Amino acid sequence: MPFTFSHPAAVLPLTYLPRRWYSLTGLVIGSVVPDFEYFVRMSVKSYYSHTWGGVFFFDLPMGLFLAFLFHLAARDSLIDNLPMFLKKYLTGYKKINWLQTFRKQWFIIVISILAGAISHIFWDNFTHANTVFVKRLPALSHKVLLFGEKVPVYDILQHGSSILGLLVILYAIRKLPADKQARSTMSFKYWGTVAAITLVIAATKLAINVDKSAYENYIIPPISGCMIALVITPFLIGKKQALKA
To answer: Within a 10 A sphere around the Cβ of 56, how many other Cβ atoms?
Structure first.
């Protein structure tokens, strides 16, 4: 699969629309939420989230849940503990009153999540075997010699687009207005706790059960663990303590 957190690159062009027509939170979370079936299962198995029906009965409710979880639990502590080259561009998002925003813009947020999820599935259909576009476009299944191995074009697109997507996202962040008053408040206690929780969750999952047939099954548990850690760490150490080294 293309790297989950490269997917927001696909929805960035929609931010050129009038601001009232979209929710950035909805677009970004929608663009990654189909992969959260993997993260919930901690395994590279997706039965619902990458289907068109699943866009409505899995991706939308999960996207709304993640939006509230991010803004109300993880956002402020995470931004405060980012390295300066990211924090100075993102600190302004701490000013968002999510509950108030949702009450006023819930319909736009819902539509944005759906649009993001659809963009994710559309992208995946060019980069996975046995998908609509790969089946209908034989060129995507054509194998080319790469580093001494024959690799299908859709695999090259998968990894290449993941790298390109991350670069596009970094470029977009750099284009945001920087807060010149921002100061480094990274906390060893915060990141140490995040790392410890991530390690415990990932190690537990990998020790109990792991399908060795796919390398992604070794990557997904640490990502799942890290996201859980980002949510619960501020409550474990206290939001004020999360700002202290």
So the answer is: 12
For 214, the token pair is 């796919």
Q: Which of 16, 102, 24, 120 is nearest to 65 (CA)?
A: 102
Question: Quick one: which of 34, 35, 32 has its CA closest to 9?
Answer: 32
Q: Which two tokens stand for residue 116?
A: 């993001």
Interatomic CA distance for residues 226 and 212, integer angstroms = 21
Q: Phi/psi of residue 144, each to 5°?
A: -120, 155
Torsions phi, psi for 60 (to 5 deg) = -65, -55
Is this model's pTM higher than 0.85 or not? yes
Q: What is the dihedral of CA 100, 101, 106, 111, to 10 degrees?
A: -170
For residues 72 and 65, what is the distance between their CA atoms, to the nearest angstrom? 11
Instruction: List, in order, residues 6 or more apart from 57 with CB less than 8 Å away.
Output: 48
pLDDT digits (tens, 9 = 90+) for 46-94: 999 999 999 999 999 999 999 999 999 999 999 999 999 999 999 999 9
Q: What is the DSSP letter of 143?
A: E
Interatomic CA distance for residues 9 and 31, integer angstroms: 9
